[in-house]
Amino acid sequence: MSGTVRWGVLATGGIATAFAEDLRSMPDTEVVAVASRTDASAQAFAERFGIPRAYGSWAALAADDEVDVVYVATPHSAHREAAALCLEAGKHVLCEKAFTLNAREADELVKLARDRGLFLMEAMWTYCNPVIRRMTELVRDGAIGEIRTVQADFGLAGPFGPEHRLRDRALGGGALLDLGVYPVSFAQLLLGEPDRVQADAVLSPEGVDLHTAMLLGWSEAGASGLLNCSIVADTPQTAAVTGTTGRIEFPRGFFYPELFVLHRAGHEPEEFTAKAGGLRGMQFEQAEVMRALRAGETESPLVPLDGSLAVMRTLDAVRDRIGVRYAADGVTQG
Prior knowledge:
The protein is of the alpha/beta class.
């Protein structure tokens, strides 16, 4: 693929809006179509961003021959359906996180993309952030020795009423899949898939997690991860990685950071920064998708599909421990 990359945006909520705003800053790209479940929502979004075509159905977007890649921005309960529809129509896909509701759905999407020779990537924008990439380089090069602990949290105070999507079990509600995916992905970026998973949670009357605490373990590495997520408490939203010879600390907003501080014995603290240029930071994942497409790659080395599958398996294990079930798991909604 060369020249202008033509995007389709599937769904019109807040995350789709942020994506379209950041995409405006990217060269040689444009949004050529948007789809929603209603014509009115699609038309309003198209008018706001100057998008030439608006569709009141996902299938119409998937069938648009002028769309190269589709950004799936629905609630994660619909990720599998929406992404599969686009892949089956021959479109490359960038799919929001959590990748799907469970590992089985994620595996189905990955197999479909690989069978069709199409590009697929989870929109884990954190992995594409230059600050995070610099951190992983330092850790890999031994800047803090061997990792012993990872700490990260992401919580919002709300309040979110029972009618909110974060409390709706039919939409995959709860803190874990919406917010906890960030701490889990952060830890697994550094250590891979854990072999021990413990968790505790407070559940809502609807059966979704309001707050979840996770303790992950990596036996071979001799490391542990203490992670938290919440939709009832405004947590610090920080992260820290401690090794045998130093530590790395991220301030509030670790999942879209502009800086971190490296602490090592015998050295002054070192600050590493990379500004987002006034944007939210989604331009980094957008650039990675377009780089991969132009290079003819079907997977991103920054956000590998096997890594996304491993994160989904951990999220499944956590949900198993805390007793949160979705219809996609093969259980009846209560």
